[in-house]
Design brief:
GO terms for molecular function: metalloendopeptidase activity. It comes from Henriciella mobilis. Keywords: Signal. About 35% of the residues are buried. Helices cover about 10% and strands about 30% of the residues. Strands 1, 4, 7, 9, 10, 11, 12, 14 and 15 form a nine-stranded mixed beta sheet that branches. A hairpin with a 3-residue loop joins β2 and β3. It is mainly β and about 230 residues long. It contains two helices and 15 strands. It is globular. The chain has a single domain, classed as Glucose Permease (Domain IIA) (Distorted Sandwich). The longest helix has 18 residues. The chain binds zinc ion.
């Protein structure tokens, strides 16, 4: 009897633990919304505190994760090259289907993030929209210029959110569009890139250097250049 009661309590704990585990989010640090030299206001988006590998995904460029598929050493708000504060995962409730690096003999230049149902994608940092266009590879995609040679790209959007056009200022956490399957995509997901370099070449965003979004240090409250 005692044993049965114990099992019951354990099962209950397990069930409530699974069913009611709240999704933790982090507040964007003040630097994102108040000290960036971009006049656009920040949106309501708050980055998730954790990132998980998708349960059934085959991640060839695997990241270290714990027994619950949680990516280890994940920083929800990072500082890129000591210059730009951003979130490396600009979407809520998404899991990672592919990381940055070698994949099928080629370099995968960003993160693939999937959510079901599909989720809104947000600006990872304040900036100016340089590209809001459609291409065969990335489908409906957005490139944001965050200043100081730092850019982000968002591929395969279902469609563009209102106010997303080339030349527009955009604040941290403002909606860009729901993740989709436009362009060369095998399923609904966001392809997200962090890019650095000189945009003003004939190749524009395709002349920039792709960086691993998960490689940057956590933002600790100090950013130069704002
Ligand atoms: Zn991708």
């Amino acid at each position: 009897m005692k044993h049965a009661a114990m099992v019951c309590i354990l099962v209950l704990l397990w069930m409530t633990g699974c069913a009611s585990q709240p999704r933790r989010v982090v507040s964007p640090p003040p630097a994102i919304s108040t000290t960036a030299a971009i006049p656009a206001p920040a949106g309501q988006f708050q980055p998730d505190a954790n990132l998980y590998l998708c349960p059934n995904a085959t991640i060839t460029n695997a990241l270290e994760s714990d027994s619950r598929n949680r990516v280890l050493n994940f920083n929800p708000v990072v500082l890129v090259d000591g210059k730009v504060v951003m979130t490396p995962v600009p979407v809520n409730n998404a899991c990672l289907t592919s990381g940055f690096g070698r994949r099928f003999g080629r370099t995968h230049k960003g993160l693939d993030l999937k959510a079901s149902p599909p989720e809104m994608v947000y600006a990872a940092a304040p900036g100016i929209i340089r590209e809001a266009t459609t291409s065969t590879g990335f489908g409906n995609h957005v490139v944001i210029d965050h200043g100081q040679g730092v850019f982000t790209r968002y591929g395969h959007l279902d469609r563009f959110a209102p106010g997303v056009w080339e030349g527009a200022s955009i604040g941290f956490g403002q909606p860009l569009g729901v993740m989709g399957q436009t362009g060369n995509a095998t399923g609904i997901h966001l392809h997200f890139e962090v890019l650095t370099g000189n945009y003003n070449t004939p190749k524009k965003s395709f002349g920039l250097t792709a960086r691993n979004p998960l490689s940057f240090p956590a933002y600790t409250g100090q950013a130069s250049g704002y």
